């Protein structure tokens, strides 16, 4: 059976759940319940957080631990060995614009091994290490075709190269299949089987974030890459994983979430579009078992998604939405970004504020420490989005595209 056939049957299998969720979802702003959110500036001991030292040593680690325990699961640290092997190199890729490297990242723990295939294009005209965008790809592998015989707007590698950035990606199937039956067959069964026995153990999205961190391990060894100027990006479920990557690993300069919705950038307590119950029902393998406790009980969560964004501070964060993607709750994503980046402003004294009301499509807001835009259209990652992400990175790095 082909990959596309398997995907087709998987979508058929979850269609009843998806239809049920979409049918019952609230997409009426007037029906959003009254809610209060946890204060990012008061820790669990009731202590006020008002300095960088308090944030770094008291509140931020506490928030990350709360997300580990209640949403994404543990992030295992144990690695016995990690090796990088270039299995394919083409110095004249993209008609000479780039060097293609396909790198196998082999990770060993307790004598068991898994391999992640990293696809990396590096601009040839640069005379210095290139900043890099890493895409966490959960869509069909044809979206990231290293031969470039198939080109998709989801990963416009040529445009990224033309802007002077390196374009990197991996497919999530190398760390955890996007499938409720086979998601354990990669790193979970092989490297960290104990996580499957824990109520707060790693699950699918945590595994994807772990995979992105291994790509960063490689970037730090690659002289052609400026690992200090690395951005991690994901769309939809990949956007949830990218936010968790940025929160878990401070090596990322920019964390980008595109239309990540529930369990990503959107506030869970708004109960708009996809809800905690719906996402846990349809995708039970994405989050830790403890997250099920909050089905229809979002008010009991000790955190909300604005705190995930806050945990990325002082590093940069970007949240993007689409006007017709009400399932992902664009307003909830924007509100979460506004609230979460208070840490950038009030603890780190960074300049700039987001407008009180979300801007109309076509009017991105790019602050020194955070970005936002809403695009006309449906749920997707498009070249338009990518160009705005690169515009933000240009500004953030003080970088002139193409140099």
Automatic annotation (TrEMBL):
One of its GO terms (molecular function) is carboxylic ester hydrolase activity. Residues 105-345 form the 4-O-methyl-glucuronoyl methylesterase-like domain. It comes from the Bacteria. Keywords: Hydrolase, Serine esterase, Signal. InterPro entries: AB_hydrolase_fold, GCE-like_dom. Signal peptide: none annotated. Coiled coil: none annotated. This is Putative acetyl xylan esterase. It comes from Cyclobacterium amurskyense. The lineage of its organism: Bacteria, Pseudomonadati, Bacteroidota, Cytophagia, Cytophagales.
């Amino acid at each position: 059976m082909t990959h596309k056939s398997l995907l087709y049957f998987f979508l058929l299998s979850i269609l009843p759940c998806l239809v049920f969720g979409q049918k019952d979802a609230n997409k009426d702003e007037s029906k959003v319940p009254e809610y209060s959110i946890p204060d990012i500036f008061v820790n669990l001991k009731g202590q006020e957080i008002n300095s960088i030292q308090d944030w770094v040593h008291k509140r931020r680690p506490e928030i990350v631990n709360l997300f580990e325990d209640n949403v994404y699961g543990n992030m295992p640290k144990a690695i016995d060995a990690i090796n990088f092997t270039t299995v394919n190199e083409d110095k004249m890729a993209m008609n000479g614009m780039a060097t293609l490297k396909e790198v196998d990242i082999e990770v060993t723990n307790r004598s068991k091994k898994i391999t992640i295939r990293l696809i990396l294009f590096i601009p040839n005209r640069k005379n210095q290490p290139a900043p890099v965008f890493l895409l966490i790809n959960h869509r069909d592998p044809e979206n990231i075709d290293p031969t470039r015989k198939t080109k998709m707007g989801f990963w416009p590698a040529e445009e990224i190269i033309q802007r002077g950035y390196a374009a990197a990606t991996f497919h999530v199937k190398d760390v955890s299949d996007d499938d409720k039956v086979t998601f354990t067959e990669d790193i979970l069964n092989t490297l960290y089987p104990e996580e499957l026995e824990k109520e707060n153990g790693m699950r699918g999205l945590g595994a994807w974030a772990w995979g992105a961190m291994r790509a960063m391990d490689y970037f730090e060894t690659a002289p052609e890459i400026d690992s200090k100027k690395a951005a991690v990006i994901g769309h939809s479920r990949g956007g949830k994983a990218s936010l968790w990557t940025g929160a878990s690993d401070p090596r990322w300069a920019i964390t980008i979430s595109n239309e990540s919705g529930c369990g990503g950038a959107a506030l869970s307590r708004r109960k708009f579009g996809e809800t905690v119950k719906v996402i846990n029902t349809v995708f039970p393998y994405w989050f830790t078992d403890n997250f099920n406790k909050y089905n229809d009980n979002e008010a009991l969560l000790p955190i909300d998604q604005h705190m995930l964004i806050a945990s990325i501070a002082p590093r940069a964060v970007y949240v993007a939405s689409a006007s017709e993607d009400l399932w992902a709750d664009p307003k909830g994503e924007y509100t979460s970004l506004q609230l979460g980046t208070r840490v950038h402003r009030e603890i780190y004294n960074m300049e700039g504020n987001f407008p009180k009301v979300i801007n109309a499509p076509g009017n991105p807001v790019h602050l020194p420490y955070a970005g936002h835009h809403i695009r006309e259209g449906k749920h997707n990652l498009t070249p338009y989005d990518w160009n705005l992400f690169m515009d933000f990175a240009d500004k953030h790095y003080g970088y002139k595209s193409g140099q």
